[in-house]
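Whiteboard transcription, Tuesday session. T.W. wrote the C-alpha cells on the left side:
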C-alpha cells in the first residue's frame, strides 16, 4: 500500500546531504547504506572566474567575516541566483552553472537594497528576505521592483504557496513574545495567521524595567551609542542562540501540505494549503541538555577569552571597537566582573532544542537537523513519519565529500530535480576557494 511519508533527518552534526530523483535507488535505500557520498558533477559551472564571481568572499564587518555568507535560489529551469551578504548585487548563473551576469535591485534611489533573495514566486518573480521594516520586495531578473508587501512582524523565513501566496514565518519580540506563521496573499497583502505561540523572555522584561539582565551586558557610551553583549553559556554550543527567542519555528511544503515544526513546544503540526490544521504530534527525538558543570566550564573559558580578547562569539554590537582603549579599560573589566557574578546563576541544566532547522529534499522528504555533538562530525539519524503518526528510525549514516569542505546551511543548499545545488569551498583551490556546485547522491 502506498504511504504518504515525509522523512526527518536528525543530524548529529551539521551535514546536509542531497537526494536524487530518477536514480535507481530510493533515498531511503541510500540512507540505509551508512556512508552517503556527495559527488560533484564535473561538467557543471566550468570556466567561471571564481575570483571575480565570489570577490566578496573575504569581506569583513567589525572583525567578522561576512563574505562567506551566501544564499542560493534555484529557478524551475535550473538557473541559479546567488546573493552576497551586505552586498547590493546578485549573481545569475544558467542551468549549466555558467556565469551570466550580475544585477542589482533598482530602487530609484542612490542607496541600493542589500537583502538576499529568499526564493521565487514563479519563473519570473523573485522575492527578497524582509527588511527591518517588514518589507518584502518582489523583483524580476533585471532587478526591477514589481511589488512590495509589508509584514507587521519580524520575518526570517518565506516560502511560495500555490495561487500567488506566501508562507511567512516570523516573531514579535517584547515582554510577551510571539512566534507566528501566516499565509500572505501576494496580490492583496492579506495575512491569515495559522500558527501562533506566545511566550515570555525575561531578558526583555528585565531590560525594559531597568533591571540587571542575567547573561547580558549593556552600557551607554559617551558618544551616545550603546554596547550590548550576550554571553549565555548555551550560546556557545551552536552558531545560533539556544535561548527560547532563538529557537525558530521551521516550515515546509510537503505533498501539498504545510508542515510547521516548532522546537519550543516539541511538535510538528500539519495543515492543508489553506491553513486548516490536520494533525499535531510530538517530535520523538530524544531531548538533550547542557549540564550545570558543562555550562560553568563554558563560562570559565569565555571569561578567559574575553580577558585575552580572543573570543569571536563574545563581541559587542557594531558600534564598539574591541581594540579601542574604552573597550579595554572600561567595557572589558566590567564585562568580566558581570560574567563572574552571573556564574552563580548557573544552577540547573539547560534543555537544548530537539532540532535546529529542516530542509526538504527532492522526494518531498524533510531533513531535521540536530545540534552537532562534535565539530566536523557527520553522523545523522534517519526518521520516517507516516500517516499513522510514527517516526521510524534507521541506522546511523554519514556524509562524505572528497572534493569539498562541506558547510551545512539551509540558505545555501537547495534540492532541485534530484540534485543538490550549493556553494562550498573546494579543497586545495588556489585563490578564492568558493564554487557553485551541483552534487548528486551516491550510496557507494
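and on the right, the sequence the group agreed on:
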Amino acid at each position: 500500500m502506498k504511504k504518504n511519508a515525509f522523512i526527518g533527518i536528525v543530524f548529529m552534526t551539521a551535514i546536509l546531504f542531497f537526494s536524487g530523483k530518477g536514480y535507481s535507488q530510493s533515498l531511503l535505500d541510500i540512507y540505509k547504506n551508512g556512508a552517503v557520498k556527495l559527488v560533484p558533477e564535473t561538467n557543471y559551472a566550468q570556466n567561471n572566474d571564481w575570483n571575480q564571481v565570489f570577490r566578496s568572499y573575504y569581506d569583513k564587518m567589525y572583525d567578522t567575516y561576512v563574505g562567506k555568507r551566501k544564499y542560493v535560489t534555484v529557478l524551475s529551469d535550473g538557473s541559479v541566483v546567488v546573493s552576497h551578504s551586505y552586498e547590493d548585487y546578485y549573481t545569475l548563473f544558467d542551468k549549466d552553472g555558467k556565469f551570466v551576469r550580475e544585477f542589482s535591485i533598482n530602487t530609484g534611489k542612490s542607496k541600493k537594497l542589500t537583502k538576499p533573495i529568499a526564493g521565487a514566486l514563479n519563473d519570473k518573480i523573485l522575492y527578497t528576505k524582509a527588511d527591518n521594516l517588514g518589507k518584502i520586495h518582489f523583483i524580476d531578473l533585471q532587478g526591477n521592483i514589481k511589488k512590495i508587501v509589508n509584514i507587521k512582524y519580524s520575518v526570517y523565513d518565506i516560502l511560495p504557496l500555490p495561487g500567488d501566496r506566501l508562507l511567512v514565518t516570523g516573531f514579535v519580540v517584547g515582554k510577551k513574545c510571539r512566534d507566528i506563521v501566516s499565509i500572505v496573499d501576494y496580490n492583496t497583502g492579506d495575512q491569515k495567521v495559522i500558527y501562533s505561540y506566545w511566550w515570555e523572555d525575561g531578558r526583555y522584561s528585565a531590560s525594559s524595567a531597568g533591571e540587571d539582565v542575567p547573561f547580558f551586558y549593556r552600557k551607554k557610551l559617551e558618544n551616545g551609542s550603546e554596547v550590548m553583549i550576550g554571553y549565555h553559556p548555551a550560546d556557545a554550543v551552536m552558531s545560533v542562540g539556544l535561548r527560547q527567542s532563538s529557537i525558530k519555528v521551521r516550515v515546509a511544503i510537503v505533498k501539498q501540505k504545510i508542515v510547521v515544526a516548532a522546537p519550543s513546544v516539541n511538535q510538528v503540526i500539519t495543515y492543508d494549503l489553506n491553513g486548516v490544521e490536520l494533525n499535531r504530534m510530538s517530535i520523538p527525538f530524544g531531548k538533550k541538555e547542557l549540564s550545570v558543570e558543562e555550562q560553568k566550564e563554558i563560562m570559565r573559558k569565555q571569561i578567559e577569552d574575553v580577558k585575552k580578547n580572543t573570543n569571536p562569539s563574545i563581541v559587542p554590537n557594531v558600534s564598539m571597537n574591541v581594540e579601542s582603549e574604552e573597550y579595554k579599560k572600561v567595557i572589558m573589566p566590567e564585562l568580566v566582573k558581570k560574567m563572574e557574578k552571573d556564574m552563580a546563576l548557573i544552577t540547573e541544566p539547560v534543555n537544548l532544542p530537539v532540532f535546529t532547522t529542516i530542509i526538504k529534499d527532492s522526494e518531498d522528504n524533510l531533513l531535521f537537523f540536530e545540534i552537532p555533538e562534535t565539530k566536523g562530525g557527520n553522523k545523522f539519524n534517519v526518521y520516517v513519519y507516516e500517516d499513522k503518526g510514527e517516526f521510524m528510525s534507521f541506522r546511523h549514516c554519514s556524509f562524505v565529500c572528497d572534493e569539498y569542505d562541506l558547510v551545512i546551511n539551509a540558505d545555501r543548499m537547495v534540492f532541485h530535480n534530484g540534485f543538490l545545488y550549493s556553494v562550498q569551498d573546494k579543497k586545495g583551490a588556489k585563490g578564492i576557494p568558493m564554487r557553485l556546485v551541483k552534487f548528486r547522491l551516491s550510496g557507494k
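Someone added at the bottom: Residues 29 and 305 are 46 Å apart (CA to CA).
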